[in-house]
Design goal:
The protein is mainly alpha-helical. 59% of the residues lie in helices and 5% in strands. Strands 1-2 form a two-stranded antiparallel sheet. Helix 3 runs parallel beside helix 6. The longest helix has 23 residues. 30% of the residues are buried.
């Protein structure tokens, strides 16, 4: 085997190992808020900043992020397939921690002046979520601590929520109830590890 080929193989193996920073992967224990914040302290800083700026509690942010991306920074929707074998693009443009659509993300950037914000950055994704939920509170009257209805407005869009489009989607109502349940679980857990959000 030539020296060049061996060097290329070593580079390939090293590159496939990644940098070890955990980005692009979920925290190990998604069922305990304290474990998530212990593993990813930058999350605590992001959630705290969003709660201060927009008023959205950390447990509501976390439950929504769990549902949307399982805390995977570069999460994408699945591909559509033709004839079961030909990929024809993704189901939607939803991307990143918050699964924000291209158009909604651009609206956020314009409204906040955060033109360099990235959907793969937890601070930006959390801030986006705070901005969106604060708008839902202002326009639709949904409490910032109402994880269920905030999720429905997040998923359906504010216009869809106002039209109650979710009522024709029993699966979505179940998911929204799951988000509410997880939100309350995270809330209780955060009460035992409050120092992580100080």
């Amino acid at each position: 085997m030539s020296r060049t080929l061996r060097a290329l193989m070593v580079l390939f193996v090293l590159a496939s190992c990644g940098g070890g920073n955990g980005y692009g992967t979920a925290p190990r224990n998604l069922d305990h808020a304290c474990a998530i914040l212990d593993e990813r302290p930058e999350y605590a800083r992001a959630f705290r900043a969003t709660e201060r700026k927009w008023g959205v509690p950390a447990h509501v942010q976390m439950a929504t992020l769990y549902q949307e991306s399982k805390f995977i920074s570069d999460a994408r929707t699945p591909f559509r397939w033709t004839l079961g074998i030909i990929p024809t693009g993704r189901i939607s443009s939803a991307y990143g921690y918050s699964q924000a659509l291209d158009g909604t993300w651009e609206e956020y950037q314009r409204a906040t002046g955060q033109y360099s914000a990235r959907r793969t950055d937890i601070r930006d994704a959390s801030d986006f979520m705070g901005w969106y939920m604060a708008q839902s509170n202002e326009r639709l009257g949904i409490s910032l601590s109402d994880a269920r209805n905030q999720y429905l407005a997040y998923h359906e869009g504010r216009t869809g929520f106002a039209r109650a489009s979710y009522n024709s989607k029993p699966w979505l109502l179940r998911v929204a109830s799951d988000v509410e349940s997880r939100s309350q679980t995270y809330r209780a857990q955060l009460g035992t590890c409050a120092r992580r959000l100080i």
